[in-house]
Amino acid sequence: MSERTAPSVTPSSSNDSPAPAPTDDLGQSARRGALFIPLAKLWFLVSALLLQLLLPRALGSSALYGVWTLVSSWLSTFNNVMITATIQAVAYFAARGPSAVEHAKATALRMNLLIGGGSAALFFLAAPAVASFEHDAELTAHLQLGSLIILGYSFYAVFVGAANGARQFHKQAGLDITFATLRTGLVLASALVLHSTLAAIGGWVLAAMIILVVAVALVGLPKPVDGEPIPVKTMLGFGVWLAVYLLGLNSLMFMDGWWLKRLYTEALVSLPAAEVKRTVDAVVGVYGAAQTVARLPYQLIVAVTFIVFPLLSAPAVQADRQRTERYISATLRYSLIAMMGLVTALGVRPQGTLRLLFPPEYMTGSSALAILLGAYVCFSLFSIVGTITNSLGRTLQTTALGLSTLALTALSVYFSITSALQAGEQPLRAAALGMLIGMGSGLLLGLTYLWVTLRATLPVLTLLRTGLGFAVAMLLGRIWPAAGSAGLLGSKLGTLVCAALAGVVYLAVLLATRELSLTELALLRRERPKATISEP
What we know:
Blueprint: E1 8-10, H1 25-59, H2 62-94, H3 98-133, H4 139-165, H5 169-194, H6 197-219, H7 232-267, H8 273-294, H9 296-313, H10 315-318, H11 321-347, H12 350-357, H13 366-391, H14 395-422, H15 427-454, H16 460-479, H17 492-512, H18 518-522, E2 532-534
Antiparallel strand pairs: 1-2
Helix pairs in contact: 1-5, 1-9, 2-3, 2-4, 2-7, 2-8, 3-4, 3-7, 4-5, 4-6, 5-6, 7-8, 7-13, 7-14, 7-15, 8-13, 9-11, 9-13, 11-13, 11-16, 11-17, 12-13, 13-14, 13-15, 14-15, 16-17
């Protein structure tokens, strides 16, 4: 695909001779992104789900899976920050034209010699402190080995960001698919052979190093080009606030598991240490299974951020306020509709969903799953709001929203779990409820900010209609036989049938309320801007 200069907005002139209809390069980019990125993210979603479904069986116990869940949550917090902050920072500067892509790569590589290397070293040194916080010294070696993943991700993200900013979505998709396959295959192979969480982390390290080599070969090292180079200080100024925001966002996603491990361990302190660790790790593993299912809508909707960010970062879009407002409202609307459809299918029978996907011992997490699904709808929309504001260059405001939501969620999860343990109740449902309260509060803050500053937000009627569709579909779960009961409807196949019917009911309500139409489902047409788009 040939690289093109960034589009510009020019007024039409009545004196000009007739010319062919101009091409909306941003529209073409959106269509390419809509083709490649969701396909890659779908494979990423499938491979990640396969990993989480097969790993408990490869490791052999919910306790070992609990250790993996905890270690991967700490690693993913920093990995996700490193890779997303770098991708968005590089994409932001690379979106300005072909020469900017090369300058962005060169600057980001220099920046991450310091930031990536420093973060990996800091994580290695902080591993004993994290293990102490979780009251589990066994975590230290796992976390220290994982610091190599952070190092590899920091450089790999530079090349993914360059492909995204250049709107070379096919290259970004290829890297996503390759890495997802490598990570799933190597982690599962290591766990299956050695039945060890440390070996599984080692497989992850190997996958990170291989994909870095592939990314360099596919996207290419920076080439000398004309033009003003991007100072490291400039990119760092953009990336610092973005990284702080993403650190808060990813901490938010794993906050409940961290508190659950620490607080439940403290509550069982009177028991023998070995029994405490085995019991708590098993509970964390069950909760991790519920988290895996609840995050599926979020993993799917992440594709939206990789398309929205470079498009809203383009000067032609930012110069047209009405066009920006339409993009934002449409993005939030379609994201909510898609997520609620998946949540309906997964949540109509939560116990049956866990029984379908995991060994029987994980079914005890069904009450937590039902609540976590709602929490991650809020989280997904909140992350899209953050992507929108970041793409418009408002990183400081985005960071404030993220840190505020993190503080609210940390407090709500802590007090929810503490209250449940003091009452002698199972902490799984309490942890999920704390997440729902915190994430819901953060989403309300984000939507309010969008409305106050841009007069764009999630359409209220869309919220009401999708909520109605979800509620009506849930009635199906109330009358359906319980998971494990005799007969076809209580079987695993019955769970699939119920999920499919729930999705049909949800869609039927949206059609009946005219939230969607058959024409819209057949072809989602993008609105054309009023200004003429031309390219020099």
